[in-house]
Design goal:
This protein has about 280 residues and is α/β, with parallel strands linked by helices. Helix content is about 25%, strand content about 20%. The chain binds zinc ion. The site of zinc ion has 5 residues, from loops.
Length: about 280
């Protein structure tokens, strides 16, 4: 599953296995080189995450999959993952699949309406291959990973990214649930992870354990940050908790900090609300 080619928007990147990604032309701080759109199969094709609304990306997807495309699967409904489904379905007649409920938090593709709503464990039978939906809430409550069973390849959307840390943004994002969803992946027999952003990740269980440890280490830094003030606001805690990341990402990191605080509150370690938090 070695795959270290340069990621260029619109250019199909071959993988050793069945899936091959086309990065969408939306590079940025939150999206890395762009959202990976994966095309799976050789006859009748499935596509995971059509990406944002983009005429350029639509033509790249049509060129790569065209009339052979039968299934459009979305990992979740953030605007860099699912909106491209509508134009792609209109052009190809392919069935759109994803978790049904779209959270109302102002950060969603609210118009997303799958032809088939998927739940945990459901199988999408594509003839030559099968994709199993794995419900992995945390980054988004309606997040599904898709397991390409015969390759033991897990398409992870934004549950796991390569090259950047996933933002957990309350209220739809939930740190405790995110950690549980990471733990669940350890029970799956996996060869590699195909993330929604970045390159394919080998040694998937090692990576999942690393991510869990990373989050728990950050949680420890939240607890330690109260040494500088108790009670403290999120803005007071932020520079201590994220002293290892560049300042320009602090606004985004603040959302994950809030997710840590909510988890600690539920764990009974922290009390407070709004602008004042106190370590018990
Ligand atoms: Zn997302």
């Amino acid at each position: 599953m070695a795959q270290r080619e340069e990621i260029v928007p619109g250019k199909v990147v071959p993988l050793d296995g069945f899936g091959r990604p086309i990065p969408a032309p939306n590079p940025g701080m939150m999206t890395g080189p762009g959202t990976n759109t994966y095309i799976i199969g050789t006859g009748r094709l499935a596509l995971i995450d059509p990406g944002p609304e983009s005429a350029l990306h639509l033509s790249a997807m049509l060129e790569a999959a065209g009339k052979q495309l039968k299934w459009i699967l979305c990992t979740h409904t953030h605007p860099d993952h699912s909106p491209g489904a509508r134009a792609l379905k209109a052009e190809t007649g392919a069935q759109v699949l994803g978790f049904g409920a779209v959270p109302d938090d102002g950060r969603q593709d609210a118009a997303f309406a799958p032809d088939r709503a998927l739940r945990e464990g459901e199988i999408v039978d594509c003839g030559a291959f099968r994709l199993r939906a794995v419900h992995t809430p945390g980054h988004a409550s309606n997040h599904l990973c898709y397991l390409l069973e015969q390759e033991k390849l897990l398409f992870t959307g934004d549950h796991i990214m390569q090259g950047s840390t996933v933002v957990i943004s309350p209220p739809d994002g939930d740190m405790a649930v995110y950690l549980e969803s990471l733990e669940r992946l350890l029970a799956l027999d996996l060869v590699a992870l195909a993330p929604g952003h970045g390159h394919v990740i080998e040694k998937p269980h090692d990576e999942v354990r690393r991510l869990i440890a990373h989050r728990l280490k950050r949680e420890k830094k939240v607890i330690d940050a109260f040494e500088h003030g108790n009670p403290a606001t999120l803005d007071e805690l932020l520079p201590f908790v994220y002293d290892d990341v560049p300042r320009q990402v602090h606004a985004v990191a603040r959302r994950s900090l809030y997710a840590h605080i909510i988890k600690l509150q539920r764990d009974g370690r922290v009390t407070g609300e709004g602008d004042g938090w106190r370590l018990r």
